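Following up on my earlier thread - several people asked me to post the actual chain instead of describing it. Fair enough. Here it is, all 322 residues.
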Amino acid sequence: MSSSEPETSPSEQLANELVSLHQQINTAQQKYSQIANHTLAEIEQRHQNLLVSIEQLERKRDRIQAEIDQSFAGSSQEIAIRIQGFKDYLVGSLQDLVSVAEEMEFPDPPAPKISPVAVTAQVVTTTPPAPVNQTLLPPEFAEPTYQSNARRIRELLNKYQTAPDYYGEPWQIRRTLEQNQIDRAANWFLQQGGRGAIKSLSGRLQNVLVASASISVLRELYGDYLRVLILANSPERLGEWRRGLQDCLGLGRGDFGPSGGIILFEAPDPLMIKAEKIMAERDMPFIIMDDSEGYVSLALLQYPIWLAFAPEPNLYPNDYRY
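Reply from S.P.:
Thanks for posting it. Predicted structure:
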């Protein structure tokens, strides 16, 4: 008698198929979930990469824009400043030349010849000579120290810092000085005796302020005997000095030039010739050297009063002209 397997009922078959379908569905869902997570991670990575690329491009754009602004706008502004400085220097030099021409004295035409008869008929008259104008000699300035005037110098510098007169007389500083500027001027007067170099400040205008304070003090001490000689190696820088001194000291065009109180020079040799002439006239030359000078002419150090603005050591080599 043979054994037979039990037959599966239709309901059981349907149940088995349903279980198999559920397993297939779960497997498909798991695979889909893995694919979705992998795709989402890849999209997220691409998104992050795009954000980084955008940030890099924006920084590059900003850097290029800054370089364009610096290359074009900055250069244009610098060129405009240099042109304006040269223009001021050229106009001032032409005005100085006109002033010198106006002050030139031409010889009188020769007197007509007088016949001997007319000479005998004339009455000879004599007039006493005009009295000689006895001008006072300038104060002694060969001594490079200012100990006797130390108190007065401190009072003036303190006044320039605490109570400046913005509408004062010409040759009196009209700008407020900072403490570091006062310290440099005081050290130059009282420690260096009015003969020495001081470290240049952040800009030429700052140096002009210190020089203006020194000029103002010296004018208080020595009056019209003071003659200021400015040395810079380009017309543009001389134009900046001219404008700065006009602004700080309330000066006019007539205060510059061969016959004025301030004379501008591009080279040391003509400056020394003028300084010798000034000393021969018993006036006082005050030499100011701009920080653009890459060397110092040793011959300039012989004069009684000089002020040099020393540039940064890494800008110019140590060079001396004999």
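The beta strands are 195-199, 226-231, 262-265, 284-289, 296-297, 305-310, 320-321. That should answer part of your original question.
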